[in-house]
Here is the input.
Amino acid sequence: GPGFINLRVADDSWRDELALIHAEAGDYGRSAMGAARRVNVEYVSANPTGPMHVGHCRGAVVGDALAALLEYSGHKVTREYYVNDAGAQVDVLARSVHMRYREALGEDIGAIPEGLYPGDYLKPVAEKLAAEYGDRYVGAPESAWLGLFRAEAVSAMMDMIRADLAKLGIHHDLFSSEAELQAEGKPAAAEKWLREHDLVYDGVLEAPKGETPEDWEPVELPLFRSTKFGDDQDRPIKKSDGSWTYFGADLAYHYQKAQDADELIDIWGADHAGTVKRIKAAVAALTGGTKKFDVKLVQMVRLLKNGEPFKMSKRAGNFVTLADIVDEVGKDAVRFTMLTRKADAQMDFDFAKVVEASRDNPVFYVQYAHARIASLKRKLADAGIAAAAPDIARLDAYELGLVKLLAQFPRTVEAAATAREPHRIAFYLGDVAAAFHAWWNMGNDRPDARIILANDAELTATRLYLADGIGQVIRNGLHLMGVEALEEMA
Here is the structure.
């Protein structure tokens, strides 16, 4: 009607797009959108006090997939892990190891006291120390061994964490140590800069509303003016004993990161939602608002089996480890499933569902589409049909519709990268797989709709050309998710 321009992209341009998919292959969907902007993606950063647990799993996958997506879209990405090796919890770790060390030397230590780490995973660290130092530190004052035991324990825990992450196919470029940052005086440098810009002052925090807790005291502390940036109160960067608060240490760490990046992205557990506003305020202050900073919150995962809450036997004592889950269902099922929901939406991980061979299991459905496509080459050889040149003009309307769906891949990648939402790739691949399976199944009802036709080598070649294009896009999408594209499925 009047006022409407009917934009119908000519069929030829869709056929050209299919040729482009074949020509660009693994680079189809790649772009220079990021213009080599330096983006630091910090993810996992679990405390170095034990093996990775299921709670770390989703953030690890989301961060890793986001880093891959940004890289594919032309950003220069640094994958970073921040090691919290300066807080009170690593001293607790060292004391826990000291108990195990005494045990390794034959002492009956009884039950591990409340407040220490009870896991057996500390025994090998303790045994190594016992073998190396004998009983030198059994009766020694804490000051004599705390530093050594802490360093040994953190190093062993980080080796364990790196091995756990490798099982998921995750490898960071950079591990930054909180203790090293403090030793290099970075928090003090950040404080100096903030004071010069009147963003830190010495003041007394108001007593908390309601009943005043016993540990509150009206002491003067260095406070960051976070109320200037929308926080509900100014925040201390140091404690009364002069040590840095979590916030103070975090602030210095982000100050350091911002020196080497144009944009910072942190992947945090949703339980840290309360601190997002103040750290964003601090980064805005420290960078004069010149650096983009985003915090992605990742919700917890509930473990189920056949819809019922699932209690796994736990290697680490009181929690399910990431390694337990990968060993149970495999890396691909874990990675794909963790990306089937928006990061900040609740997620159920059902052990029975993620290994089920059904269309309700997205990882199976997508990998099965790829395996079916790979099987066509073998079927062709078995049928003894001579290879012919494809004639793309013979693609019918439904098949051109498949090409149109494939042509959305570059835009989907760009939109997912722009929104920092890697789950969009999983959704898109689900659509592609569904469309492919529907096309495949048409041949069950209509022999002329089959992909391999004994009496028409040219149309067979044309449909294979389309199928290979679909396979290529599925491979490219799975690659971004860190999931393997299978050639065969049992």
Notes: The first strand starts at residue 38 and ends at 42. The mean pLDDT is 92. DSSP finds 16 helices and eleven strands in the chain. The CA atoms of residues 121 and 316 lie 7 Å apart.
